[in-house]
Structures are given as structure tokens and as C-alpha cells.
Amino acid sequence: MSDNSFNALLALIHDKIKKRKIKRGIGAEQRLCITLRYLAHGDSMQSLAWLFQIGKTTVRDIIYTTCEAIWDSLKNEYLKLPHSIEEWKAIAKDFEDIWNFPHCLGALDGKHVSIQAPPNSGSAFFNYKKHFSTVLMSICNANYRFIMVDVGSLGSASDGGIFHNMLFKELLEKGHLNIPPPEELENTT
Prior knowledge:
Layout: H1 3-17, H2 28-41, H3 45-52, H4 56-78, H5 85-99, E1 107-114, E2 133-140, E3 146-154, H6 159-164, H7 167-173
Antiparallel strand pairs: 1-2, 2-3
Helix pairs in contact: 1-2, 1-4, 2-4, 3-4
């Protein structure tokens, strides 16, 4: 991450992650450094505690609150679920123009993200690839941009099982997504 990108992200979340009323608190810049190190390299919280000379519980709390701040600050700009028929049709047009795949409203898939097994989790996070993971399930547009993300499902769950429990599926089934009505494909009659 460039210095400019780091500083821009820090400016967005600074007030959400800075601590007040603490004599020698951990500053917002260091909080962001700890979190980005964790996200980019997958260091254990114990190794981050040692590296930054702070407690393991403090590392956990910093990562959680900083990730929440990043999410709250960026979700509306970078993760936009279409709200109108016109937006969905624009996605479908991109799929047809770029990939020759008409009437496609998104590419859906899951990705296993390796984790350290949480305490007392048994085999809940143990996946078919023989390691512990959590699942990121997402829908992307034709330009590889996320339009919906669901993170945190058990590694032992299947993509279908995760989709079945997603808010997106519920919104889709209840007709709350303003998906365009079905149309015939050209040259199929």
C-alpha cells in the first residue's frame, strides 16, 4: 500500500479508531498498521502482539474495531448493490459486451480464507481442502468489482448452504432487489 493510500484511508477512519482519555494509548496510525499487517500477511494475533509489544487481547480488539471502521467508511462507495432495474440492466449489458454472456446479473462464488481455528470450534471451520477457513461469498459484476459480499461463514459449509442463508437470497426471493423481468434471449425463437 502506498503512503498516499495509507494516509487517505487513515483520514477516513481516524476519528472512528482513535482512543480518547488514555494517557499512553495506541494511536490511530499504529492501529491501522496493525490491522493492515494482519489482513495482508495473515500474522497470528500472538505474533502481532509480540511485534508491536502490546497484549494479544488488545491486538484482537484493535483489528476488530479498525475493520469495522474501514467497512463503515468504504462500504457505500465500493460495495454498491444495484437498487434499480436500470442498474441491473447495465450490469447485464457489461456481461454481454465483455464476456458474450447475455442476461447475466453477476458472477457468484465462494472463496475459502485460511484462518487459525477458533478455540473450542471443533471441526466447524475445517473444510474439504483439509485446513481451517472462513468463507467469503460474493457476487461480482463483469468488471470484477464486488456488488455483494458475505464474509464469515464456517469453512465446513458448502457454497450452496452459505447462499441459502444469505440475506441476498432472501431479498432476491422476496423481490426486493428490483431485478428486471425475464426477457427472451435474442435468436432463440
